Amino acid sequence: MAVRLDRRQVVAGGLALSAGAALAETPSGAPWLTAEPGDAGFADDLAARLDKLIADKRVWGQHGVLVIRRGRVVLERYFDGEENNWGKVSAVRFGPNTLHNMYSVTKSVVALIYRVALGENKVPPPEAPLYEQFPEYPDLIAADARRGALTVGHALTKTLGLAWDEIGLPYDDLRNDEIGMEHSKDRYRFILDRPIVGPPGKRWLYCGGATALLGGLVTKGTGRPFPDYARDKLFDPAGIGPTEWIANKDTWVAAKYGLGDGEPVAASGLRMMPRDLARIGQLVLDAGMANGRQVVPAEWLRQCFVPRVSVDEIRRYGYQWYVGDMQFRARSGVVHLERWAGCFGNGGQRLFVFPELELILVTTAGNFTPDQWMPPIRVLREAVLPSLL
After folding, report:
1. What is the mean pLDDT of each run of 10 residues along the chain (389 residues)?
2. Among residues 271, 280, 239, which one has the least CA distance to residue 27?
3. How high is the pLDDT of residue 228?
4. What is the C-alpha separation between 341 and 329, in angstroms, rounded?
C-alpha cells in the first residue's frame, strides 16, 4: 500500500504568516513558521503529555523532540545529555542549532541523493545488474554465477541475499559487518564477497553494506565526494543548514585499531540539526518540492514508499525507507488508521511522516546500550497522536 504524496504545503512562494505565528530561525537562513497547538489541530496539553512521559520514566535519554504540522513548528524541546559520536562520549547541552548524529537515518537520505544522481544519468537504475557496476571484481561472479542475479534494486531494499551480521554485535567490534566493512582495505569487495544465504529479493536483512554500495555508485558516477554532491544537489536546494559527514577514520573504532581510509560513512555518518531532518520530512510532504523547485521527483518518493518486503509484523520496507500503518485514538474519540513513512537510526533517532495528517515528528536521543534502550515510538503513540483533536 503506497503512501499518498499529492499534498502541497508550499503554494505561490510560501505559506502566509498568520496571526500569532512566529519564525524559528535556523543557521541556513530558512525559517520555520511556528504555531500554537490549538491552531495546528492539537489539544493544548501536547507539551504536558511529553513532560509526563519523561516524569513517569516512560521516555528517557531524549536530546530533542520536534513536532511539525501543516508546515509549522508546534512543539520543539531540547535537553541536556550525553552524545555518543561514534564512540566518543561527551556531555552536550542540545539546542536547535546543535548538529546531531543521525546514524541509520542517513540511509534514507542516501536514497534521495541516489535518485538525484539517477536523474542526471550518473548512476544505474534499480533494475541494473549490481555486480556489473563493479567490474573491478570479475572473480566474484566467476566463482559463483548466482551473484549475477542481484540488482541495484536489491541494495535499495536490503534484500541482497548475502550474509550480514550487524545487529547482533556491538558497533565497536570488528566482527560486526558494518564495522568490518568500514575498516577493511576494500569496502566494496568486503560487501560483494559476503556468502550467499538465499535468493535476492526475498528476505529483508539489516545491512549497512547495501547503502554503502549506493553511496559508492554515486561517488563513482559523479566523480565527486559523496558529501559534496549531497550538499549541492539535495541539502542546499532543500534549505538545509550545516551538516557533517563522519569519515571512517574519525571513529573511535578507527582510533582503537588504527584503521580507516578516510571515506565518508554512507550508511550512517550524517550529522545534521533536528530542524533540518524535519526539512527532509517536509520535502516528502511536499512531493519533492522545496523553495519553488523540484528537488526530488515525486514519482521516486512514491517508489521509495512502496512496501516491497516485510521487516517484521508491523514495519515494511521500500527503497531505504520504512513504511507502515498506525492506529490511534484521537482526543475526539475517533479511531484513525494512518499511513506513515520513516527513517530510523541507532540510539533513538527518528523521522516519522504522516502524509494525510500533514504531520512530522523528529526525535533525537542517546539510548545506545541495552540498559538505556526504550521505544522512541512512545513519544508518538503516547504524546503526539493522542493530542490530535
Report:
1. 37 28 50 94 96 95 97 97 86 95 97 97 98 97 96 98 90 84 89 97 97 97 96 96 90 72 90 97 96 95 96 96 96 94 96 98 92 86 96
2. 239
3. 97
4. 19
CB atoms near residue 136 (< 10 Å): 9
Cβ contacts of 179 within 8 Å, gap of 6 or more? 171, 172, 173, 253
Q: ∠ CA(215), CA(267), CA(340), 5° rounding? A: 105
Residue 183, phi-psi category: left (phi > 0), alpha (psi -120 to 50), beta (remainder): alpha
Position of cell 517536509?
282
Residue with cell 493544548: 44
**Exposure string over 72-83, b if 16+ CB within 10 A, otherwise e:** bbbbbbbbebeb
The one-letter code for the residue type at 366 is: G
Which grid coordinates are listed for 198?
Answer: 538465499
Cβ atoms < 10 Å from Cβ of 257: 13
The candidate with the shortest Cα–Cα distance to 180, out of 164, 198, 196, is: 164
pTM above 0.85, yes or no: yes
334, three cell numbers: 475517533
CB environment 206-230: b (16+ within 10 A), e (fewer):
bbbbbbbbbbbbbbebbebebbebb
